[in-house]
Amino acid sequence: MDEIRGAAAGTAPVPLSVLDLVTVGSGRTAAEALRTSVDIARLAEARGFHRHWVAEHHSMPGVASSSPAVILAHLAAHTERIRLGSGGVMLPNHAPLVIAEQFGTLEALAPGRIDLGLGRAPGTDGATAAALRRSERLAEGADDFPQQLAELTRFLDDDFPDGHPYARIHAVPGPVQGPTHRPPIWLLGSSGFSARLAGVLGLPFAFAHHFSAQNTVPALDLYRESFRPSAVLDAPYALIGVSALAADDEKEARRQVLTGALSMLRLRSGRPGLIPTPQEAEAYAFSAPERQFVESWLSNIVHGTADEVRTGLDDLQKRTGADELMLTANAHSGDARLRSYELIADAYELPGGVVRS
């Protein structure tokens, strides 16, 4: 259970973690973005962040995290202690046996450090989802999520009952080879479906506050109300993903988060691309509706100086009762993202930094 429930470090009210979207800025490459991910994971480990997750996205030029298991194997080779996981793998895109094999392999590579976070969304648009799943029946895949989850769990535990069609099939690496540790399963969501399912199954829950802020409190309430103790958890445990970016001054923080806002505007308009530069974002001629979207988007990003971000995160944690805050910093520059995590770590006096007076 300790692998789920982290311990708060420094003066942070709850454990702090990292959600890495492996963003690719204009003029940069995926190789550079992946090197930044290694740098962020190393920084997070050195400064006492609890876990580092990567999320599955497809057909998005500005996001290089289409293969979480591959990225996690790379991060495992460059870290020693921090928990690593998916935030998440979109289960309807994959055969459960494949995910059991991938995360069994990751567990063998980094024993006791792997989390398996699962979502039921496609992680992309409908056409790309159809290409991934080789099916036009996308809603059916989402509706089958509880059954897919049950199948995946049985593959991970190697405990299909006698007579089941898969009883003689084994996920390898896995228990068929001898005693093994099973990565804890998390359910991810941005609405009530996964919140309720996680509660009923007694699993930890991760909510995507960073793009569904209006649903955060209702979903967490539903999770807690639905929770039934299990062999995994005796009480609810919920983290929320939070967009947060700290800079050395408020103006610079605004410049950096505007790049992510413009990128999201383009994505929502069917024009996905690389993350624009701050100069491009500042020069962009927003229409009135676009400006309204951007300001609404920015209102849910905790940004500013380190002290302002710390205050904003503290207030959000109190308002939601989240057991853990998972911070994602979306900006054009990898250096800006690294600086943000460093500043936040300093603001909370996390280990490895200079204690502020």
Briefly, what is this?
This protein has 357 residues and is of the alpha/beta class.
* Element-level helix/strand string: EHEHEHEHHHEHEHEHHHEHEH
**Approximately what portion of the residues adopt beta-strand conformation?**
5-15%
Mean pLDDT: 93
Structural class, by secondary structure, is alpha/beta
Helical run tally? 13
Low-confidence stretches: none
Strand order of the largest sheet: 1-2-3-4-5-6-7-9
User: Distance N terminus to C terminus?
Assistant: 35 Å
Give the strand tally: 9
Radius of gyration: 20 Å
Note the main sheet. Answer: 8 strands, parallel, barrel
The proportion of residues forming helix, as a percent range, comes to 40-55%
Q: Describe the global form.
A: globular
Topology:
Layout: E1 16-20, H1 30-47, E2 51-54, H2 68-77, E3 83-90, H3 96-109, E4 114-119, H4 126-133, H5 138-143, H6 145-157, E5 185-189, H7 192-201, E6 205-207, H8 216-226, E7 238-246, H9 250-268, H10 278-283, H11 288-298, E8 302-304, H12 306-320, E9 324-328, H13 334-347
Helix pairs in contact: 1-13, 2-3, 3-6, 7-8, 9-11, 12-13
Model description:
The protein is an alpha/beta fold. The chain is built from 13 helices and nine strands. It has helices at 30-47, 68-77, 96-109, 126-133, 138-143, 145-157, 192-201, 216-226, 250-268, 278-283, 288-298, 306-320, 334-347; strands spanning 16-20, 51-54, 83-90, 114-119, 185-189, 205-207, 238-246, 302-304, 324-328. It has an eight-stranded parallel barrel, surrounded by eight helices. Helix 8 (216-226) links the parallel strand 6 and strand 7 (238-246). The protein is globular and about 65 Å long.
